[in-house]
Design brief:
Blueprint: E1 2-4, E2 23-28, E3 34-40, E4 46-52, E5 55-62, E6 65-67, E7 77-92, E8 100-114, E9 121-129, E10 132-139, E11 147-153, E12 156-159, E13 164-167, E14 180-183, E15 207-208, E16 212-215, E17 223-229, E18 237-242, E19 247-252, E20 262-265, E21 268-269, E22 272-278, H1 281-286, H2 289-292, E23 308-313, H3 315-318, H4 349-361, E24 366-369, H5 400-410, E25 413-419, H6 424-441, E26 445-449, H7 464-479, E27 483-486, E28 502-505, H8 512-516, H9 526-530, H10 564-573, E29 578-580, H11 585-588, H12 594-599, E30 604-613, E31 617-624, E32 630-636, E33 641-646, E34 656-663, E35 676-683, E36 688-693, E37 698-705
Parallel strand pairs: 23-24, 23-29, 24-25, 25-26, 26-27, 27-28
Antiparallel strand pairs: 1-7, 2-3, 3-4, 4-5, 5-12, 6-11, 7-8, 8-9, 9-10, 10-21, 10-22, 11-20, 12-19, 13-14, 13-16, 15-18, 16-17, 17-22, 18-19, 30-31, 31-32, 32-37, 33-36, 34-35, 34-37
Helix pairs in contact: 4-5, 6-7
The structure holds 1-deoxynojirimycin and calcium ion (CA).
């Protein structure tokens, strides 16, 4: 319920010292945990500060813009009016980490006007929550401007101490970097340029991508995580780091073609600039700030998408067991026949049926099929990718209709795959026909991919042009009752609240790097960092569940750098409404640990983040929607850990049966990764479970009422 406060918390302070005139207003969060102070300095520059429980966490920071052809918004503003209000509402997640979300904030809206002849207008809106803040700029309709071309957004975040930061570089083209842990004063994004395993990468500044998470030094730290919410028709934001002043400044992703960052007609507003603020790291994961700052559901119910587990013709290609392509080469204009087969193709009708059978037998709802369509023969090192991929024409050994028929018979859904190879114009031309084909076949989800430099050259994955491409593809998909899981995507900014067909995405260094990266794969600390950084943005298609940790016989020099038990725990820890059982079926057959994957939920009524520290460990319990079952996952970095977990989230006076999938005594991510033990024990809300996690290990637990 929304109501506007009669009393406006405005107080004008006129300080006569040093001719500095401050017009100041402030607003508190509902529980008085966080405060935003806003003022105009003596030069008319809009500025703000953020205070958390009496500690200034963002010191005086200026706001503004630079534009093409017209004067910047860099000062000469006055406050015209101030309005404040409060909202306390609850909304239902159609699928998610919990059934219901509380959206409780106080809002401050400040209308500004230039003191110059033109008197251009700009508004600022702050929403202050107990778990953080969001603010955005509004460009209201005005006679003085009908369009702006933004060349630089000048949003500053002045840190007050030299935090420990978990960061990836501000790459305009990809988020698939390992996280770095350094003080803010030591962030060096430039040193991350030219990673040999990235098909595209561009790091122009010493900037970081968001979410970037920080912990203050000292005995009683606080945590900050910077990100953005509701990224629509705007460029993605990186944060430029000043190692000396500890200031972060928005650096929008640009375009070499246009030379600017954003072009918009008025009226419009920017995405929310967000800061999650917490006293405990676990509270960052509890926070629903990012989704709360998005608009309510515009699609209504989408009964055609239900969360599911899936298998797929996928890992076998990353291992090199089979290929995406049907034939290695193609002559222009050639139509393939069976004689052209190279014999290694993964996406055959027969192989797909094998995965369908396996899924049907094991409580797994979907099968992803990559490499089903023509174009893959041009995949490697091919620069001109326009017109190469075809999203309706299967290879001759893949009978799409038969596969779909067979899957239906078995109660399994086929997941479509559209690898665009970062040629979005080719994809856009075919979108309607590709989605119509899916609709005709009754296929309701697609995994899309954008590997490579964007064609047209000069656009970047995270710039305004591509933000619009990703969003428009998802909006159109909704018209065809299709849910989207994008790889090489734009970052998640909570749009899933408004468009719940945006189900999951990659946008991080996923499991695939363990199969082939030249730097030894994802180290054991990777996911304990991801849980407190990338995961704050939204669901992750990480593709867990690799049991054949050493990847033999396919990749003798690569491996997954976790124990098998940790792979199980990831189904609970790393949230997504679609969770892949990524390994080859033959690696699951006969392995008792597979029972956990068969059993684990994918849609949740409730989530409890039990403990954790970025880069070290994290434990999460989730209650399945529609059942009374709880599942718990705990993961650690390269250090072994003993943790005690109180099961006080269970219903009082009820008894439960817990099945614990834990690392064996001598398990180790490198020396002994597949050693695990399964134990069973009766538990209730008074039970304290003592778990021993091996180096790079984890534990996965199912807890069901007796
Ligand atoms: C990169 C994606 O992340 C991966 O999952 C996919 O298999 C390949 N592209 C091919 O589309
Ligand atoms: Ca990828």
């Amino acid at each position: 319920m929304r109501f506007f406060l009669v009393a406006i918390s405005l107080f004008l302070l006129v300080s006569c010292t040093q001719q500095e005139e401050l017009k100041e207003t402030s607003i508190n969060s509902p529980g008085n945990i966080n405060t935003v102070e806003f003022f105009i300095d003596a030069s008319g520059v809009p500025k703000y500060r953020v205070i958390h429980k009496g500690t200034t966490v963002i010191d005086t920071s200026s706001l503004g813009f630079e534009f093409k052809d017209i004067p910047a918004f860099k000062g000469d503003f006055r406050i015209v009016s101030i309005d404040s209000g409060s909202t306390d509402e609850a909304w239902k997640m159609p699928w998610g980490e919990q059934s219901e979300v509380r959206n409780h904030y106080n809002e401050l809206k400040v209308d500004l006007e230039e003191t110059l002849e033109n008197a251009r207008k700009l508004n600022l809106v702050f929403r202050v929550y107990d778990d953080g803040i969001g603010f955005r700029y509004e460009f209201p309709e005005q006679a003085q401007m009908n369009e702006v071309i933004i060349t630089d957004e000048l949003t500053n975040f002045q840190l007050t101490v030299d935090h420990t930061a978990w960061w990836i570089p501000g790459d305009w083209d990809i988020y698939e970097h390992l996280y770095n842990t350094t003080r803010v004063s030591e962030i060096n994004a430039i040193s991350k340029r030219n990673h040999p395993d990235l098909a595209q990468t561009y790091i122009p500044e010493n900037a970081v991508n968001t979410p970037v998470t920080m912990r203050s030094p000292g005995e009683q730290p606080y945590y900050l995580s910077f990100h953005e919410a509701e990224l629509l028709d705007y460029a993605g934001m990186t944060l430029k780091v000043n190692n000396e002043t500890l200031n972060l400044e928005s650096e929008l992703v640009g375009s070499d073609i246009t030379g600017y960052k954003v072009k918009r007609s008025l009226p419009f507003h920017t995405p929310w600039r967000t800061i999650q603020i917490a006293d405990k790291a676990t509270e960052l994961i509890d926070s629903k700030l990012i989704v709360n700052l998005n608009e309510p559901n515009k699609l209504g119910d989408i009964p055609w998408f239900t969360p599911m587990k899936y298998t797929g013709i996928w890992w076998e290609m990353h291992l090199g067991k089979s290929s995406w392509d049907f034939a290695r080469t193609q002559v222009a204009g050639q139509t393939f026949s069976m004689e052209d087969a190279s014999g290694t193709h993964g996406a055959t009708t027969e192989n797909t049926k094998h995965y369908i059978d396996f899924s049907a037998k094991n409580n797994i709802g979907g099968v992803l099929v990559e490499g089903w369509n023509t174009g893959w023969e041009h995949w490697i090192g091919f620069e001109d990718r326009e017109g190469v991929f075809d999203f309706v024409t299967p290879y001759p050994d893949y009978d799409l209709e038969e596969v779909v028929r067979y899957a239906k018979e078995k109660g399994v859904q086929i997941i479509m795959h559209h690898e665009t190879s970062a040629a979005p114009r080719t994809y856009e031309k075919q979108l309607d026909t590709a989605y119509a084909l899916m609709q005709k076949l009754g296929i309701h989800s697609v995994k899309s991919g954008y590997v490579g430099k964007i064609i047209p050259k000069g656009e970047y994955h995270h710039g305004q042009w591509m933000v619009n491409h990703y969003n428009n593809a998802a909006f159109k998909a909704a018209d065809y009752q299709i849910a989207v899981n994008a790889h090489e995507p734009i970052k998640a900014t909570g749009l899933r609240r408004t468009y719940p067909n945006i189900i999951s995405r990659e946008g991080l260094r996923g499991q695939e790097f363990n199969a082939w990266s030249s730097d030894g794969g994802n180290p054991p600390e990777h996911l304990p960092i991801v849980a407190f950084t990338r995961m704050l943005a939204g669901p992750i298609d990480y593709t867990p569940g690799i049991f054949n940790i050493k990847l033999s016989p396919y990749k003798p020099t690569s491996q997954v750098n976790t124990t098998l038990a940790q792979q199980l725990a990831l189904y609970v820890v790393i949230y997504s409404p679609i969770q892949m059982a990524a390994d080859l079926p033959e690696n699951y057959e006969g392995n008792p640990a597979f029972e956990f994957i068969r059993d684990v939920g994918v849609d949740w009524q409730k989530t409890v983040v039990i403990n954790g520290e970025p880069g070290d460990f994290v434990t999460i319990a989730r209650k399945e929607k529609g059942t009374e079952h709880w599942f718990m996952g705990s993961i650690t970095d390269e250090n072994a850990r003993e943790i005690s977990v109180k099961l006080d989230f269970l219903d009082k006076d009820e008894s439960y049966e817990a099945i614990i999938y834990a690392d064996a005594e001598d398990a180790h991510w490198d020396n002994n990764p597949t050693a695990y033990k399964i134990t069973q024990q009766k538990v209730n809300s008074e039970t304290v479970l003592d778990l021993k996690l091996a180096p790079g290990g984890g534990a996965a637990i199912s807890i069901k009422k007796e």
